[in-house]
Amino acid sequence: MTVRAIGNASIAKVEELCGPGFKPNRMFPRFDQEAFDAQKHWMVSDHVEAGSDRLVGSVHAWVVRTPHHTILIDTCLGNHKTRSAPNWNNLNTPFLDRLQASGVAPESVDLVMCTHLHVDHVGWNTRLENGRWVPTFPNARYLFARKEYAHWEDERRNKSGEEVNGGSFDDSVLPVVAAKQAVMIDVDHQPDPLLTIIDAPGHTPGSIAIRLADGGREAVFSGDIMHHPVQVYYPEWSSQFCWDQDMSAQSRRKVLEHCVEHNSLLCPAHFPGANAGHIHRDRDAFRIEWDR
Ligand SMILES: [Zn+2]
């Protein structure tokens, strides 16, 4: 396992799943074949499946340990959950064993942070115990962006439970609130002396990025502000899953600019391969230098 240092803090990735998914023309409404082909030489095969061109994606969480807290950022899909996507349905992965192998017992997690409340970012918030969904991390405070939570709570009022983020709002978010472990935060909230929040709406109404800074170094956990590294090169390519295509593109540029300016290590939620990298400006867009 790769453990990266940022000042006195450490970062480790814990993977749940990894494999090929959508074709790029389905993933990106603004897809352009020629532009995609121009980047293919470095994307095959870590990021694009050879032959099929399907985009390779990972579902992983980031563990951040600061001198003050053990923090879990984005909690993947979870086990035993009924989902409409066949490859996400009723999973039984050894995610918690992998987390334990990284030195983190569920009881030792102090803070759980979700960059947004989509199904693949909240799953391990809860686990099944005697037929009930209970918080997986019994001693943690779960920090949800107030604006994000309010949006999905509003959807919940108008729709059935299964329709709100594929059922995950009901089985992976509401039980945390019921257990009184949820804390609604605004973007000026500082969860840890080393952590601050970057407002980055667009993929969802209340998407956030999380900035870790210490000793002159920093990392940015960007959630789904980018799904795939081709979006570093074409930041206007929002995904079909983005709530607002233009707003998402604006936030993507803002976060990428931030990473250039602060020499931040970009740590997205779904980049496979080296998982993280540094961003450089390249004409009117950007490129990524992988942190191997
Ligand atoms: Zn996601």
Offer a quick outline of the entry:
23% of the residues lie in helices and 29% in strands. With 292 residues, the protein is α/β, with parallel strands linked by helices.
Descriptive notes:
- With 292 residues, the chain is α/β, with parallel strands linked by helices.
- The chain is built from 7 helices and 15 strands.
- The radius of gyration is 18 Å and the shape is globular.
- The protein binds zinc ion.
Keywords:
292 residues; 15 strands; single chain; 7 helices; seven-stranded mixed sheet; six-stranded mixed sheet; alpha/beta; binds zinc ion
Which structural class matches the secondary elements? alpha/beta
Rounded radius of gyration (Å): 18 Å
Number of distinct beta strands: 15
Q: List the bound ligands.
A: zinc ion
Question: How is the main sheet built?
Answer: 7 strands, mixed
Helix and strand run: EEHHEEHEEEEHHEEEEHHEEE
What is the mean predicted local confidence, pLDDT? 97
Q: Helical element count?
A: 7
Instruction: Give the neighbour order of strands across the main sheet.
Output: 1-2-3-4-5-8-9
Write the layout of secondary structure elements.
Blueprint: E1 3-6, E2 9-20, H1 24-27, H2 33-43, E3 56-65, E4 70-73, H3 95-101, E5 111-113, E6 126-129, E7 132-135, E8 141-145, H4 146-158, H5 168-178, E9 182-185, E10 195-199, E11 208-214, E12 217-223, H6 230-233, H7 245-262, E13 265-268, E14 277-282, E15 285-290
Parallel strand pairs: 4-5, 5-8, 8-9, 12-13
Antiparallel strand pairs: 1-2, 2-3, 3-4, 6-7, 10-11, 11-12, 13-14, 14-15
Bound molecules: zinc ion.
The site of zinc ion (ZN) has 6 residues, from loops.
